[in-house]
Design goal:
Blueprint lengths: L1 H24 L3 H33 L10 E5 L2 E2 L4 E6 L4 E10 L16 E4 L8 E2 L7 E2 L3 E6 L8 E10 L7 E11 L11 E3 L10 E5 L5 E4 L10 E6 L2 E5 L4 E5 L4 E4 L2 E6 L5 E8 L4 E2 L2 E2 H12 L4 E2 L2 H6 L18 E3 L7 H4 L26 E8 L4 E2 L3 E5 L6 E6 L1
Parallel strand pairs: 3-10, 3-11, 12-15, 13-16, 14-18
Antiparallel strand pairs: 1-2, 1-4, 4-7, 4-8, 5-6, 5-9, 9-10, 16-17, 19-27, 20-21, 22-27, 23-24, 24-25, 24-26
Length: about 425
């Protein structure tokens, strides 16, 4: 019996000793695994944070790339159009004409000019947009001529027409930069107004000023009684000069009665002279000093446009504008229903180069035959203008030395 108890004691000692040692060292398998995972998680978190710090540090060292939005722009009469803009007009005879121009390297914050080669930059589009073009001048700011882009309605004028004008400009090959702009042109059927969601609505409007009428009535009859041997005939002469339309009522006859009973009746005479005056029929849309109407440059194109919109009319000269009554200029609007606030001072007698925006690039010497066809803003060519108080109809004083290209656009009156 004692021997068996001794054996049990030995077995118990062999089992208890290793367990005590393991508990003392803290190397229980479960605890060891937990520490291992905790350590790995800590290293992983530190590694992720390190990578984030690296990315943030690298991002801070990078500079924002310069904008290319100034490289090419599409302009209408009001200035630069935002990329993706939509312009809308209501058709006249199933067609709309939108005056546009291309410009390169226009001043814009955050955008530096690019160096372009001498290749002409052209627009594209199924509405013959290729006629829109501009010739680069290295890194200089330059604009092409305003050109009428025609958009036709569809389904015999029953449905709107649409055309997207696209222009892409790429700088010289070294560190090439590219800018692409688009403008969508919409032509609504005749009598259908443009949607309020579109940018520009142009509705042709005709302004007519009625002519003044003057009525003149001669003096009443005159009766003269003479001596027995004297017969007197009195002739009343009246001369009237009217501004435009004259209505004349003839005077009554003059009767002379002699003492002896002889009566002589002599009709009076009235002379009426009519002098034609200036009638302002309306105005064309505002334009730079390079007139481009009806696909024709200069005064010929502008005169044709006046005759098209106001039959029988022509471009008003400065003298005609100054001789027109102020009432004819009050509230004057152009063919797109815009309020007229100034006029180009068209004066065939003025110096072509310094006063009439003559094209002194392609024509040297430049004559009046090339007035209002300026070639570029980098020459001596200048124009003249007068302001208009649209409320009172008063014209301002003549302004000289006006830049033909970069000055605000001015209007052209149509006179008859």
């Amino acid at each position: 019996m004692s021997a068996m108890m001794f054996v049990v004691a030995i077995v118990f000692w062999l089992i208890a000793t290793p367990l005590a040692a393991l508990d003392a060292d803290g190397d229980h398998p479960h605890h060891a695994s937990h520490r291992s995972h905790s350590s790995n998680d800590h290293r992983s978190a530190n590694g992720d944070q390190s990578r984030r710090d690296d990315r943030n540090s690298g991002g801070a060292s990078q500079s924002t790339p310069p904008s290319d939005e100034c490289l090419v722009e599409i302009h209408d009469e009001t200035g630069a159009l935002p990329d993706g803009e939509t312009l809308c007009q209501t058709a006249t005879d199933h067609v709309c004409t939108v005056n546009l121009q291309l410009c390169l390297n226009q001043p814009q914050e955050g955008c530096t000019p690019a160096n372009f080669s001498d290749h002409t930059v052209r627009a594209t589009g199924h509405c013959a947009a290729g006629q829109l073009r501009v010739d680069p001048m290295g890194t200089g700011s330059v604009c092409g001529a305003f050109t009428g882009v025609k958009v036709h309605t569809r389904s015999s004028g029953k449905r709107p027409g649409r055309c997207t004008v696209r222009v892409a400009a790429r700088s010289a090959k070294v560190k090439a930069r590219t800018d692409v702009d688009t403008v969508t042109l919409v032509c609504m059927p005749r009598g259908v107004s443009c949607s309020s969601t579109t940018t520009t609505t142009r509705v042709a409007t005709t302004t007519t000023t009625a002519a003044a009428t003057t009525t003149t009535t001669a003096a009443p009859p005159t009766t003269t009684t003479a001596a027995p041997t004297t017969t007197t005939t009195i002739v009343v002469s009246t001369t009237t000069t009217a501004a435009v339309t004259t209505t004349t009522t003839a005077a009554a006859p003059t009767t002379t009665t002699a003492a002896a009973g002889t009566t002589t009746t002599t009709p009076t005479s009235t002379t009426t002279t009519t002098t034609a005056g200036t009638v302002i029929k309306g105005a064309l849309i505002a334009t730079p000093g390079r007139f481009n109407f009806n696909m024709t440059l200069g005064l010929p194109g502008a005169n044709a446009a006046c005759n098209t919109n106001f039959p029988g009319s022509h471009v008003c000269t400065l003298a005609e504008l100054q001789s027109a009554p102020a009432t004819a200029l009050v509230g004057l609007k152009d063919t797109s229903n815009m309020t007229v606030t100034s006029f180009w001072a068209v004066n065939p007698a003025a110096d072509p180069v310094t006063a009439q925006c003559c094209d002194d690039v392609n024509f040297n010497p430049c004559t009046s035959a090339n007035n209002w066809e300026y070639g570029t803003a980098h020459t001596l060519s200048r124009g003249q203008k007068v302001s208009l108080n649209n409320t009172t109809g008063a014209l301002g004083s003549l302004e000289t030395g006006v830049q033909c290209n970069f000055a605000p656009n001015n209007w052209l009156g149509c006179c008859q």
